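Data availability (excerpt). The following record was deposited with the supplementary files.
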Amino acid sequence: MSGLGSPFLMRRSGLFYVRVAVPKDLVERVGLVEVRRSMGPRRFHEARSLASKIGARLKDAFMKIRNADDLTPTEVRNLIRDCYATLEDERGQGLKPTTNDLDMEQREQRVLAQDHATALQLQVDQREFAPETLGVARRVAAQHGVDLTDGSNLRLLQIVEGIARALIEADRLYVARIDDRLSPYVPSDPLFVESGRNITAGIGMTVQEIADEYLRVHRKSWTPKTQKTHKPKLDLLVEFLGGDRRAEDITRTDLLPYPEALLRLRRNYASRVSTTFASHQTASEEGRIQSSTAATILARATAMFRWAFKQGYISKNPAEALSIVEPKKKKGLRSRRAFNVAELETLFTTPLFTGVRSRHRRFEKGDALIRDEYFYLPILGYYTGARLGELVQLHLTDVILDTDFPHISVNEEGSEKHGENGFKHVKTEAGVRLIPLHPDLMELGFANFVARQKKFEGKGKRVFEGIKYGADGQPSTVFSKWFGRFMTKAGLDDPALVFHSFRHTAEDFLKASLAPKYLIDQIIGHEDQSASADYGVGIGLEVTFPLVANLKLPVRIPALLA
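Predicted structure:
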């Protein structure tokens, strides 16, 4: 305690404490050798001043305690209310930041206060109080000249319960003041309405706070894309329930209408700026999201409540067994499928590959043959079966053509971070691979295109630098949307035909050539579930390149264009 400028002040682990020794003749009656109380994170001069005030009050209480009479019920209530008034003055000041990261401090202090209030409420409900709560009750009573050592069990229980309720209400006030220092505050507990100011607040975290905490906790384990896609889904839940509602108060009855409400969401709900759930819905069945999409949104809500229950933020899981019944699909129908021969011939004889009007009018037939990113990406997808994102993110160093086995390398090598141009991400461990390039690609001038891109390497590292990354930081977003419009213009409007269909097509060609499954998995980048997959370094290009180069493809693009 020495050196802090107050005989009642001590500091430990960066926090200040009030520490007052109990007179020896009162130790047995008070039940403590010393009174110690944390004052939380605050500045030194504030802690010193507060410690002096509390220390003086305790010294005065020790003088009164020797001659204290028994308390009446009214006096018990006044004692408890006086305790809350003291806490109100301290906690009502709200958070006093000690770092430059205000948001982090607010979240941290909010969670600490809510967890403390929840633990205290459990003690009140079970009428079983922790030693720390009992100690606080004795200290508060001692400050008012009351000795609880020899008091009746009933009186002790009343005071301890009241003090616990005062601490809970003080935590509620503190949470409210973190976000709003000026609005009136009215205590939720009727015991303190007379001494309080004005706001309604519940015990525990609100729905909005739990959603924020759920996203924060998983920030390190989720990719930025997952984080970004999950937030709008949780925002819907918050809008539906009300973000300021106490999560503990949410019942299964509150959530039962949610699955049906999700099925009425309009398709572009995420692009609409709104704070009401109803504005995201539509009466038009044709304009609504798919039931599978609604089920995915609901899965985020049930996962969040399951996590909150496991963490102890809520005492029950109101979303348990909540589900959306999806209509049965007709057998044989797939959400994505391979191209057939006629569709491939239609696709690769469009103006994009035979001649366009201009660089900005690629859907119109003309005399300009522009062999750039838009020309080569669909062709590479057809011949390699690679994912669109894997191709768009390729660096110039990932394309190796001056070798007996021309190939591309799908990897995550690079120093760029998510959201930066040149960032690379591979979906699975098996996705890191070397993909042989079919000789047709060389015949179509792919090597010349890469050489031209290297000539202008100062403009960027990527092979397909002309294709920008999406606002979500994903390399596939922009081109995927463009390709959808291109397919519609080409008359290939089956929703099961997308860029990913090239992947299914390539796999079908490999299977038709009777290639072993382990070779197909290595070229396509599928996880091999066999035990042997964990051994060795994989099959080399000297094996996979001849397999790809000798594939009997039903559509040869050089011949088709010739």
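Summary of structural features: Confidence is low (pLDDT under 50) at residues 194-203, 531-537.
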